[in-house]
Design brief:
The chain has about 250 residues and is α+β, with helices and mostly antiparallel strands. The chain has helices spanning about 5-15, 35-40, 125-135, 150-155, 180, and strands spanning about 45, 50-60, 90-95, 100-105, 110-125, 190, 200-205, 220. A hairpin with a 6-residue loop joins strand 4 (about 100-105) and strand 5 (about 110-125). The longest helix is centred in the N-terminal third of the chain and has 9 residues, at about 5-15. It binds a DNA duplex (13 and 13 nucleotides) through strand 3, strand 4 and helix 4.
DNA sequence: GGCTCGATGAACT
DNA sequence: GTTCATCGAGCCG
């Protein structure tokens, strides 16, 4: 389909053709993560054909200060993106099977960000559905499409190659033609969207973390069905319980 | 070099 | 409610 007049007009502003919403400026992320996080609710994250309205996020703080943060012990090859400039995407692999995505906060060299925990898919639901249902053969209800950080990453199609990408200068992955890719495969942006009424923003302890649970840096939109259920951290059970060592006959 | 466990999700009882 | 899949980062020796 050739670009219509609306898409053509938006092309100059950087606004996204699916939503008409403009990208957030980089300065938005140049603040502490716990200030950025509640402001991210209601914003729209776009990756290729899928757009998602954020309904739940968690802030992770500074190296040496927030024991729950990946950056707590300083910079490593894995978390280096978190120490880069704000407004970039930090995608990491966890539990041997899941990807999760953060948006980097504060100036380069600092090391904090906001984990994207859940959202409502507002465009490209059929693509998200296909990704989420792939391999399982099960139908996924709409509200479950991006309910939880790993599900969100799957719905948006985030993977290793998206780690470090700039979400404040909307565009396609390196090498692709930005004009041709606008609104298409790989196009990444965080858009203004529509923030919820301040009274609807709630906060509480972060989900599933083993340290720093007392810090109420999880933020969500009250009553939204796409917000993931709260889970306390459960220490892993020792493996030796399953060991086949003991088969004496008596 | 080896071991532990994690910002999880899906299947199962 | 409980169990398990699965692998990489980080810590320990």
């Amino acid at each position: 389909m050739p670009p219509g007049p609306v898409a053509a007009a938006l092309a100059g502003s950087g606004a996204h053709p699916l939503t008409g919403s403009a990208p957030l400026p980089r300065g938005f992320f140049d603040r502490p993560a716990h200030e950025v996080a509640p402001d991210l609710l209601g914003r729209v994250l776009v990756h290729g054909p899928v757009a998602l309205r954020l309904t739940e996020v968690e802030a992770y703080g500074l190296p040496g200060q927030d024991p729950a943060a990946h950056t707590y012990r300083g910079m490593t090859p894995r978390n280096a993106v978190m120490f880069g400039p704000p407004g970039h995407l930090y995608v990491y692999f966890t539990y041997g099977m899941h990807f999760c995505a953060n948006l980097v906060c504060l100036p380069e060299g600092t090391g904090s960000g906001v984990l994207l925990r859940a959202g409502e898919v507002i465009a490209g639901a059929e693509v998200a559905l296909a990704r989420r249902g792939a391999g399982t053969g099960r139908a996924v209800p709409g509200r479950e499409l991006a309910r939880g950080p790993a599900r969100l990453a799957v719905a948006l199609g985030f993977a290793r190659e998206d780690n470090g990408r700039d979400a404040c200068s909307p565009g396609a992955p390196d090498g692709a033609d930005p004009a041709a890719a606008r609104g298409g495969a790989g196009w990444l942006a965080v858009l203004e969207g529509e923030p919820p009424a301040p009274g609807l923003v709630r906060s509480g302890p972060r989900t599933g973390v083993s340290a720093g649970k007392e810090t109420p840096w999880r933020f969500w939109i009250d009553g939204d069905p796409t917000v993931s259920p709260y889970r306390v951290h459960v220490p892993r059970r020792p493996r030796d319980a399953a060991a086949p060592a003991d088969r004496r006959p008596e």
